[in-house]
Design goal:
- The complex is a heterodimer of chains A (194) and B (196).
- Chain A has 194 residues and is mostly helical.
- Chain A has one domain.
- Chain A contains nine helices and two strands.
- In chain A, strand 1 and strand 2 form a beta hairpin.
- Chain B is mainly alpha-helical and 196 residues long.
- Chain B is 64% helix and 2% strand.
- Chain B has a two-stranded antiparallel sheet.
- The longest helix of chain B is centred in the N-terminal third of the chain and has 32 residues.
- The radius of gyration of chain B is 20 Å and the shape is elongated.
- The two termini of chain B are 33 Å apart.
- The chains are: A mainly alpha (194), B mainly alpha (196).
- At the A-B interface, helix 2, helix 5, helix 6 and helix 8 of A face helix 2, helix 6 and helix 8 of B.
Chain lengths: 194, 196
Amino acid sequence: MNPSDLTLEEFERKNEPANIALTLGFAGLLQLAHEFIKADVLDRPKGFFGYVEWDNKHVWSFDDDGEEYQRNVRALSPGNPFSASLLWLQKMDALTADDAARLAKVKEHRDELTHGLAPYLLMPGYEVEPRVLTDAIEVFAKLNRFWISIDFDLGTFEEHPGATVDDVLTGPAMVLSAAVNAFYEVHLPDASGN
Amino acid sequence: MDLNDLTPQQSALYEKFQPERVAKTLAYTGLLQLTHDVLKALVLDGVKLYYGFENGEWTVEGGESRYTREVLSLAEPRKVFEACTNWLVAQGAITDEQATALDDLKDERNAVVHELASYVMVPSREPDYYAINKALTAFFALDRYWRAWALENGRVGGIPEGGSIDADGVESGEGILIIIALQAFNVTFPPRERER
């Protein structure tokens, strides 16, 4: 888009303080979702194969050098840990190929906003993508559910007989939900239902 | 729920999760993200360009070794940003206080952006909402310094990739952009006196 083709009204609408603050908030919210997704995609598979914190150090508790993790996860996409983890999560039926593609788009948009936010704040035509945020929330919910089910398999909730996956609310899920609600309540009160 | 029945910890969590406070932390994260390109252009790319690093390669003979000797040696190994701010102080481009403000802003940005969840969740963790304001004078001091340098050296084209120096004042535009964004943030989330 050529800036000289834009009208003054388009610039004025884009540069309203409320719009700028909304874009800043959206960038922060997508960063938060990305952080939680990254933990579920990258960190939790390592934990699944025995990578734990012990005495303020991280160690492989099942084998000395994380060989199982290397063979089962990292080997699926050598040199790209995120992609390897996504493939493993698909093998585990935690995600579909479509979910993985949506997460790739989440990362791409997050990177755009993290390292090139300026045009999104001021230039008409550069708009944040709410659909990507929705994708992030939906796929995170699937990841979250998968890891809760693993925790059930490992006996984490044995002291709560009768509890199901639906009864568990994790910290990240609660925080992301609170953040999404706060974002809508402050920036888009008409859409928040409050 | 009777708020008077809450323990101090519960009360702190309740306050932390008020929508206004959560939304403020998120929007400030966006502001800090915005500083990334400005810090990179004005500090890291500017100093490297001074020694002849352009379009991803060293274009001046001996430039890289001089950069290593005269800039990187000014801080501990791998603390490139700090080395560059120290160099800029030595050149008279910024004051010690401004260099500290830039270093602090870079650290604040990295901490909040990469550990955002804890800033949203943990009552005792709060961003320094004044970190950007403290660095504003440094942005404009560097803007003036690099533009003067570019003019002296016939470099009106400036830094191609970092976009910090050119005839259209791109870096100046970025400095102003931060002020515009900061004002929009302050209109939406009026600063409290104790944050300063």
